[in-house]
């Protein structure tokens, strides 16, 4: 139900304010070092968050099939825009399972559907409008949908929140209930609410002139008994996954995508999971994409790549580690090395990188480089990993290659 040209594909099936994949960048603001961001010598505990472990609130909020969908969503960038085929397959399978289960019957008649929902994932069939392609960077913002049907003026609204300090854009639609699953809507007004202004600024959209383009419907195909998870499908075939409450890793990744308050979010995340120490303390094998670091890049691109400040980190069981960074047109920088556990801590590894090359197809050009540093595992599960590495920089990596089948 997103207005075709002017809103945000949140459940309204016209085409809304465009969304774009967040670009994860290790560049950050100058850095203070409270709590997590201090000398590695003060942190010797590894905090392992197993994929089947959630906090007490989340244990209440999500059942097992719902957790399957939540798990499939972890690590998908751009609310689905940058999802890999495997990620899309996992989400589709989890959605189909939930839609086949008994959720809340007649969800449009339930009070659980009311409130503000955060958009976590959406498919986008069809071609985006020119205006959608113009709004660069919207995926850096949080996107919500408000549903209020039990009022004298029932409405469903799409909201793009720029930040707590700036404000939001709200596009509203008059709504009516057709049956137990379907909501009919028609967009009729929109406005910016800026924190620094005491009044709203109208968003100039000629809703009346748009005719049928401003109308649509939204089916709720699954509403969780807790009222915290919803799956909806719009009149143009788009699927939406929305949540009222988000899982801790989702909140962390959402914060990283906005680039605001990341250090505080990581510190809070580590602190909230510090008692989950019953899992493994081994570096998990696989391909891990760096999505954030607490250190800005240096002027030397080669130095950044050699110290793991960009690109992919590949971990192998035999103690081998590789940094891989795409350069241009299939040309890559590759640097391999070894990791062994430090004798000082079960969660700290000694890393030696000493075999670097520029790779193009079957050819390689050796580069003389060597880098040695310690890497401390602060948190690890099957999808996300937080470490302190080169020069005490804190890194967040996402697993890119999926889990190995047992």
Automatic annotation (TrEMBL):
Domain Plastid lipid-associated protein/fibrillin conserved intervals: 66-242
Localisation: Plastid
Keywords: Plastid, Transit peptide
Xref: InterPro entries: PAP, PAP/fibrillin_dom
Record-linked Pfam families: PAP_fibrillin
Main location: plastid
Domain of life according to the entry: Eukaryota
Keyword Nucleotidyltransferase annotated: no
Gene Ontology, cellular component aspect: plastid
PANTHER family, per the entry: PLASTID-LIPID-ASSOCIATED PROTEIN 4, CHLOROPLASTIC-RELATED (PTHR31906)
Family that this chain belongs to: Belongs to the PAP/fibrillin family.
Name assigned to this protein: Plastid lipid-associated protein/fibrillin conserved domain-containing protein
Lineage start: Eukaryota, Viridiplantae, Streptophyta, Embryophyta, Tracheophyta
């Amino acid at each position: 139900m997103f207005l075709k040209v002017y809103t945000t594909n949140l459940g309204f099936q016209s085409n809304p304010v465009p969304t774009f994949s967040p670009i994860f960048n290790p560049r950050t603001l100058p850095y203070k070092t409270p709590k997590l961001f201090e000398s590695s010598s003060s942190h010797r505990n590894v905090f392992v968050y197993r994929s089947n472990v959630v906090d007490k609130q989340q244990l209440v909020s999500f059942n097992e099939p719902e957790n399957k969908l939540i798990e499939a969503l972890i690590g998908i960038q751009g609310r689905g825009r940058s999802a890999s085929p495997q990620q899309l397959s996992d989400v589709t399978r989890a959605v189909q399972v939930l839609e086949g289960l008994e959720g809340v019957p007649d969800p449009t008649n339930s009070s659980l559907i009311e409130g503000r929902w955060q958009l976590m994932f959406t498919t986008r069939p069809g071609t985006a409008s020119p205006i959608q392609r113009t709004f660069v960077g919207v995926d850096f913002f949080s996107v919500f949908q408000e549903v209020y049907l039990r009022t004298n003026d029932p409405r469903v609204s799409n909201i793009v929140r720029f930040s707590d300090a700036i404000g939001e854009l709200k596009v509203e639609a008059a709504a009516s209930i057709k049956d137990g699953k379907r909501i009919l809507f028609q967009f009729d007004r929109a406005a910016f609410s800026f924190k620094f202004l005491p009044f709203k600024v109208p968003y100039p959209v000629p809703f009346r002139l748009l005719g049928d383009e401003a109308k649509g419907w939204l089916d709720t195909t699954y509403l969780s008994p807790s009222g915290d998870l919803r799956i909806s499908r719009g009149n143009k075939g788009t699927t939406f996954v929305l949540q009222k409450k988000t899982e801790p890793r989702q909140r962390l990744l959402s914060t990283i995508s906005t680039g605001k308050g990341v250090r505080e979010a990581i510190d809070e995340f580590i602190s909230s999971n510090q008692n989950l120490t019953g899992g493994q303390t081994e570096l998990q094998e696989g391909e891990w994409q760096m999505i954030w670091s607490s250190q800005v890049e240096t002027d030397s691109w080669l130095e950044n790549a050699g110290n793991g400040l960009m690109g992919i980190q590949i971990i192998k069981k035999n103690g081998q580690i590789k940094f891989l960074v795409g350069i241009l047109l299939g040309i890559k920088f590759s640097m391999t090395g070894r990791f062994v556990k430090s004798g000082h801590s079960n969660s700290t590894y000694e890393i030696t990188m000493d075999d670097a090359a520029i790779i193009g197809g079957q050819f390689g050009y050796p580069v003389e480089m060597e880098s040695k540093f310690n890497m401390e595992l602060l948190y690890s599960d099957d999808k996300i990993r937080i470490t302190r590495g080169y020069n005490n920089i804190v890194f967040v990596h996402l697993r890119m290659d999926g889990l190995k089948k047992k």
